[in-house]
Amino acid sequence: MTTEAMPGSRERLLAAAATLTYREGVNIGVDALCKAAGVSKRSMYKLFESKDELLTASLEERASAYMTALLPATDDVRPPRERILHVFGQAEALADAPDFHGCRYLVVQIELKDPDHPASQVARRVKENLTAFFRTEAEQGGASDPDLLSRQLILVFDGASARAGIKADTRGGLVIPTVTALLDTAGVR
């Protein structure tokens, strides 16, 4: 019989921060984070200098998995147009989860309001990476203005995520046609 080791205090704090800050917001208290992680405040402060550092580490730790869930595989040989549409299809699938509250990286930026906050910087980097993906694909697909198109695509992505996150709109039937119209206008193949 094998027993799995219980995750360490650091991992439990990172998981609690990811779950609670996404569900409750970045202003969740240290007491609640520690309680959810089963870790004392003293232990938390030994591992992280502050709650802000914990939030930043939690966002950083999940960034790669988030991008992997959205982007096509690196060996995906579909045309740029289909690779861009893939991202929006993945985003729609993520938004269908009952506990979806919008893109966690956008939510953090909105809640913190401080662009210099370390967690905001992580969130901005994630958004910049997604925008860069859109720009690269737009350029490879022959877009008339890849910079403009990439900015339009991230606007649609974030707007759709926010609307789905507050349950004000469903993504189905609206986002893909909008993105398709942008791609058509820009001449992306």
TrEMBL record:
Q: Which residues are the signal sequence here?
A: none
Top-rank taxon of the source lineage equals Bacteria
The record's keywords, sorted A to Z, are: DNA-binding, Transcription, Transcription regulation
Domain HTH tetR-type as annotated: residue spans: 7-66
Q: Does the keyword Transcription apply?
A: yes
The feature table lists the DNA-binding region at: 29-48
Q: Name one GO molecular function term.
A: DNA binding
The record ties this protein, via Pfam families, to:
TetR_N (PF00440)
Q: Which Gene3D superfamilies match?
A: Tetracycline Repressor, domain 2
Q: Which PROSITE patterns match?
A: HTH_TETR_2 (PS50977)
Protein name per the record: TetR/AcrR family transcriptional regulator
Q: Which organism is it from?
A: Streptomyces aquilus
